[in-house]
Fold this sequence. Notes:
Elements: E1 13-14, H1 17-29, E2 36-44, E3 49-50, E4 56-60, E5 63-70, E6 74-79, E7 95-98, H2 103-106, E8 115-121, E9 133-138, E10 141-147, E11 152-155, E12 163-167
Antiparallel strand pairs: 1-6, 2-3, 2-4, 2-7, 4-5, 5-6, 8-9, 8-12, 9-10, 10-11
Amino acid sequence: MFTFGIPGYRPDWLSRRKEITAAHGPRLAHLVGRQLTRALVVWDLDEDEWFADCPVLLDFEGEQVEINHWKFDEISITWNTIDPARALDWPDFHLAWRDDVPDGLTALVGQPCSAVELLMLRNRNLVEGTIVSLGFGFPNGQVTIYNALDENGMEFTPPGDRYARYKIGTSDDP
């Protein structure tokens, strides 16, 4: 199993809304109302940019959700398995965890989570039920962590009509 150079990390790849909801729905719903206390990404020190292949870590008062995208339609959601104090070991790259970038993400720290959504692109070419994004709403912002074709991407605006939206912990959630 490829661990992205992260000690202790064991991704758990899923691609269907029902699978994700069954495996993580209650725990994701439990994040609503909890304050985002820390957000971390892996930084490429040589290129001075976000290394989007590695998981995004969102810590909600000690409950750390670790989100990573792989291939075209797979997402791994793990919980409290990554210790960002431990060094990363990916050959040929100089990587480190950072909690001060990107600005859109750090602006959400200190706010309570108001919603968690599974987001599916509205595209006839995708398999029905395939999830490519996970969205978190806050009183003063939003982050969507999406599949950017075999790596993570982030948006800081509300999901538009291109997504079918499924709120976790509501009647929209099977």
